[in-house]
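User: Show me sequence and structure for the first protein, then do the same for the second.

Assistant: Starting with the first protein.
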Amino acid sequence: MKQILFIITLFFSLCSGDAYCRDWESDHRWHESCGQQERRQRSPYLVSNNNVFFAGRRVDGASASSFTILKDGYAKDRWNVYYCGEKISGATSGSFEALGYGYAKDKWDVYYNGEKVSGSSAGSFKVLPDWYAIDKWDVYFDGRKISGASAGSFEVLGWGYAKDKWNVYFDGEKINGASVDGFKVLYDGYAEDKWNTYYLGRKI
């Protein structure tokens, strides 16, 4: 009976940890802030009896004495960096920091949900609201570069909307035909410019 209860408990613990990671990698339509997500979720990491666990499974090789739990599923010890209990190959523990919205960086590289963001500049990388980010040259959404977006003039407007000098975006996608001048975000996914009204980035 005890073995059956242990197996059931372990199963639900693993499911909880997987759900935690999926939450950070899911569709962010309603653009819940990282702070809101962290308040409603508890990290599946546990340091106990000189071991480190994630969602009910042992994190092999992790140093319990130097283990630090970060946000968004990230953690590190003296030698390695982890995302959802898995070691991130090549990440440097000494300079690693979790930035919010699933982004993180060390001295040389930027990461999103534990994966390296190719071509990004760690030295100038900055996280913005609603899963947007910029570096000196480029703009990103959900860890992907937004083609043609201008980092120098980029501005997040809220509810997934953003704009630069030339275009308006929703969830990282350009809204064709939207006018930058006079574009205004309303509420609950609605927005408008001088001529049209939009809902979740679509003209209505």
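Switching to the second protein now.
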Amino acid sequence: MSAVPDGARHRRAHGARARPVAFITGASRGVGRACAVGLARAGYDLALTARTIEEGEAREHSSTIRESDTSPLPGSLRATALAVEAEGARGMILPADLLEPGELVAAVDRVESEWGGIDLFLNNARYVGPGHIDVLLDTPVDVIARHLQGNVLTPLEVTRRLLPGMLEQGGGTIIFVTSASGYTDPPGPAGQGGWGLGYGLSKAAAHRIPGILKAEHERDGIRSFLVHPGLTATERVTQDMKAFGFEGGAPVDVIARVVAWLADDDEADAFTGRNVEAQFLCHERGLLPGWEGPQPNAHPLVYDRSGATLEDLERELREA
């Protein structure tokens, strides 16, 4: 594999950087960390944002307003930076909180100043705090507002800040990690296999962003995607979510392989503005050899397969 993927080189025709740069939120653990390492292997340098700088830090991550949970979760920005550096990439540590949008905007400023620009924005982080799994009558509206700030408004501020630079350099890739909660109903109440309104409402709002970006900027070389990981075996799912009916899931490398494919494969251009069900696409395209594919769903969720395969897309275009 070349140091800089051909697709990235083509889309960076006006850039002066030796390697493309990816800006990832929520990079301290889970999907964000796996994607950072995967993109490092694909030739990217990584700007890494999250709240947790060092291992063992206490951060609020309770899913319910009924109690607090500040027990340390595995993972940190420091550990992710070391992992990407082990792949031969640079890793810039940028501590930031989604509820403080100025911190994320300042992080973009620093990356553009020190590294010359950003080629890929992976909006992976989400608000983690009380109210994620609480029924409506138990959820104060200000908690729902925090979900909207963290999951929609702050990512929009980041997008607005880095988009002009992408346009100036001739293109870029923007990927929003989405959720089935944004396009389908829960199988039960929050805490019984379902999720809270704040989470679903904010994910639904963010679900609309890549399509708007496609309409406004596809002709300018901006590629925008939604990626739905499905249930994934992250550190937080393992430590926090079993009590609420969620456990197991696909390896984080499934999503990392899909994000790397979207970043630089020319065939991925056909999915711009669409939703990609990561587990299905990874399995159908054989992106993670040896993985047996998605497990049968324990809940009757209806997946959004609109961007599942190129063959589906071609058929829809023929029938349109």
